Amino acid sequence: MSSFSPSFLSLLSYPGFYATISQFAPLLITLGLLYPVAAMVRYIVLEKELRQKELMKMMSVKESDIGWSWFVFFFVFHFVTALGTAAVSTQLFESSAALLLFIFWEFTFVAIITFCFFLASLFDKATRATLVSLLVFFVGYFLTLVVNYQSSNQGLIFMVSLHPVGAFAFGLQEIGRLEDSGIGLQVSSMVETDSPSGYTFANTLSNLLFDMIFWGVLSWYSNRVTRGDYGQSLPWYFPFTLSYWCPSSVAAPTRDDTEIEYPKDVPIEPVSTSLKEQGSKGKGIEVRKLVRMDFTTMNQKLFE
Asked: How far apart, in Å, are the Cα atoms of 78 and each of 7, 9, 24, 43?
């Protein structure tokens, strides 16, 4: 409490203070999140633009491993951010439980991470992706101005809450309403409301949790079917194919090395058992009928 001036503390005790700032607080936080959103999207897309992602795939790094590495990196960073934000929030929302505030901010940041993953999966150029992502992210705030969470239909509120900004903005306003009522955000009050819409803080957490899963699944799918400048994409129906989920169960076509005709004057190096097994599983690369030509012969072959 010592970090706040006496004049500011008197404002907190003013009746209806949180209702007064309910429209401005989400805007300020959204503006503060623009740089982290831009940075996350740019880092992910720049990896594709510089062909680093395809290089890692050529080194047998899986698409899922690349995605999880980015997620863990951003999650650790925003976990620390959530701790700091929750610590400050306890000073602003005096009657609210610190643990619930931390869960709220952590859910918010994770939902934003998966949302950025989906936006990054749609682009191959970092500059274009950054500009479009900032615009799409900021639009979420204006959706909350159109829909009133206290009086609107539950379905409409849920649709707006699919955008992470809409979900956390409604949650922030609900925390302010509980503070103005003198109850604060507690385990007992998070499921109670007198709003005509029946919206509670528990709905905020469930919507943010749904956003994490929803945008995470969409980014997983989009990363595999979106055709970029480099690499190959999977067909849109790949989740319904057995070869994707169980690649080892799909038998590769057998090859009979005895059918290959080699020149008599070319020595043949024996192939080890491990290489033969790789070839039978379709994991090897075979170059057949490779010959060396002089320049004149090559020109004749090209212009025949």
From this structure: 31, 28, 23, 15
259 and 241 in contact (C-beta within 8 Å)?
Answer: no
Single-letter amino acid code for the residue at 25:
A
The token pair that represents 249 in the structure block: 């169960």
262-280 pLDDT, tens digit per residue, is 566 666 667 777 777 777 7
* E strands, the chain, in order: none
Residue 257 dihedral angles phi and psi, to the nearest 5°:
-65, -15
The rounded distance, in Å, linking the Cα atoms of 167 and 107 is 10
Can you tell me the distance from the alpha carbon of 191 to that of 178, in angstroms, rounded to the nearest whole number?
11
Quick check: helix, strand or coil at residue 96? coil
Per-residue pLDDT of 161-177, as tens digits, reads 999 999 999 999 999 88
Non-local (6+) Cβ contacts of 292 within 8 A are: none
Give the amino acid at 109.
F
Report, as ranges of residue numbers, the positions in the chain whose pLDDT lies below 70.
Answer: 1-19, 249-269, 281-283, 288-304
CA distances from 7 to 11, 117, 177 (A): 7, 42, 22
In a domain, 91, yes or no: yes
- Number of domains the chain is built from: 1
pLDDT at 86: 94
Let me know if residue 266 belongs to a domain: no
- Residues in Cβ contact with 149 at an 8 Å cutoff, skipping those fewer than 6 apart: 157, 170, 173, 174, 195, 197, 199
Q: Which domain holds residue 187?
A: 6-239
Would residue 282 count as lying in a domain?
Answer: no
- Specify the 3-state DSSP secondary structure of 299: helix
| 265 in any annotated domain | no
Q: What is the pLDDT of residue 2?
A: 44
